[in-house]
Write a structure and sequence with these properties.
By secondary structure, the protein is α/β, with parallel strands linked by helices. It contains eight helices and seven strands; from the N terminus they run αααβαβαββαβααββ. It has one domain: Vaccinia Virus protein VP39 (Rossmann fold).
Amino acid sequence: MGFSEGLAAQLSLPQGMVGLLLGGAMDIANRVPTRLALDLLAPQDGERILDAGCGTGAALVGLLRRADVRAVGIDPSVTMLEAATRRLRGRALLIPGTVERAALAPASFDGALLLNVLYFTDWQGRMAAAIYRALRPGGRLVAYVTHRQTMSGWRFAQAGKHRLFDRQELASALVAGGFVPERIWVQEVPVTRSIRGLLVRAVR
């Protein structure tokens, strides 16, 4: 396996010391997208919020700083969940696995974060559908991905493990999961001078 393929594999499922180091690096790289996503989510005291693909728990920490919420994180990586457990010290419920397979009660969340996670959704929209079912009526999903025009220049993104998005493709991925187009808003955001991202807010 070449470097790009190995990096893509670790980004999709971080493991071991390499995965842990990569998770820390991603926390730093994602500070701006995480802040923008939390601004858009606008959590309120008493809400129940899901972080799907919570990684090391960095976004959950930011979430809990903003509001007194009941926070839940899901991640398929044991390495990431161990890091999140150390970081959060019992302040959030952490669940191993993927959001598609988690036994989430229907209409049980007020909001959901998906930060750099939709790259790994299937074309049938099962990830978005799982979030849609788990949200209460009026609940909102906020997601971030890096724009395909930026990612297409990164060699690891050509390894076949990442699904790439422009504005329309991102909205379509949520429509495939049950969200209606009229309640989906996608905006392009600058992350650095050379990196463009996409933020989306969708209301159930």
